[in-house]
Amino acid sequence: MAQYLTIHPDNPQQRLLHMAAEVVRRGGVIALPTDSSYALGCHLGDKAAVERIRSLRGVDERHHLTLMCRDLSQIGQFARVDNARYRLLKATTPGSYTFILEGTRELPRRVLHPKRKTIGLRVPAHTVTLALLEELGEPLLTSTLIIAGDEDPLTEGWEIQDRLDAQIDLILDGGRCGVEPTSVIDLTAALPLLVRAGRGELAPFGLD
User: Fold this and answer.
1) Alpha helices, DSSP H, located in the chain
2) Alpha-carbon gap, residue 55 to 28, rounded angstroms
3) Distances (CA, A) of 56 to 38, 149, 174
4) Using CA atoms, how far apart are residues 176 and 33, in angstroms rounded to an integer?
5) Where are the beta strands (DSSP E) in the chain?
6) C-alpha 156: how far from its chain's center?
7) Secondary structure class of 188 (helix, strand, coil)
8) Which of 119, 135, 180, 186 qualifies as a cystine partner to 199, CB 3.0-4.6 A?
9) Phi and psi (nearest 5°) for 14?
10) CA atoms within 13 A on the CB side of 156
11) Which is it for strands 39-42 and 140-144: parallel, antiparallel or unpaired?
12) What span, in angstroms and rounded, lies between the C-alpha atoms of 25 and 132?
């Protein structure tokens, strides 16, 4: 049975953030709110937790997982970012974007795309998520909370509890989230490539 924590969306309680971070550190899988929709999250280095997320999502290793970072310095640690890409990232983060970038050796091979050696990275524009990342002190490996067989993400904490109570370890209920996913932008080539149009505006990338 998952722990259920109702957290304030604008002034998240530090005690609850600490509890959520401890569950992640112990290898747990959590549900957390973001600026686009709820997400599943776990510790980057926990192989079993990563496989649990893939199983819940019904995806294999070719599906890009997303490393959620608190700021650009963390992105630079885990992805190869030149000056041009850095300027784009600086102009659009925090925001509802997921960027496909080439991973560095800091990342376990099992979380990278098996052929491209890429990963999704993002800095969310959500108070609770950023506060949790600050408390954790490191990025969180995440995936949109769409249960295998569903088409849309779950949007309410009680829905997540109803569907996944026995399959995850903690639900961080920060209120209703939307169903529009992030815009996914591939930055591995010379020019930005649109992978998925979503909540984030495309104009900064010349893709609108």
Assistant:
1) 14-25, 47-57, 72-78, 83-92, 127-136, 157-164
2) 14
3) 14, 10, 21
4) 8
5) 3-6, 30-32, 39-42, 66-68, 97-102, 118-122, 140-144, 170-173, 183-186, 193-196
6) 17
7) coil
8) 180
9) -60, -35
10) 3
11) antiparallel
12) 12
In the chain, the amino acid numbered 61 is: E
Q: Which two tokens stand for residue 88?
A: 């784009």
CA–CA dist 197, 205 (Å, integer):
12
Q: What are phi and psi of 57, to 5 degrees?
A: -80, -20
Whether the CA torsion 89, 51, 117, 185 is positive or negative: it is negative
Task: At 49, list the tokens.
Answer: 């937790």
Q: Tokens standing for 3?
A: 């722990």
Taking the C-alpha atoms of residue 31 and residue 167, their distance in angstroms, rounded to an integer, is: 11
pLDDT in tens, the chain (208 residues): 999 999 999 999 999 999 999 999 999 999 999 999 999 999 999 999 999 999 999 999 889 999 999 999 899 899 999 999 999 999 999 999 999 999 999 898 889 998 999 999 999 999 999 999 999 999 999 999 999 999 999 999 999 999 999 999 999 999 999 888 899 999 999 999 999 999 999 999 988 7
94 preceded by cis ω (within 30°)?
yes
Tokens of 23: 């569950």
Joined together, the tokens standing for residue 59 give 């995806």
ω into 204 cis (within 30 of 0): no
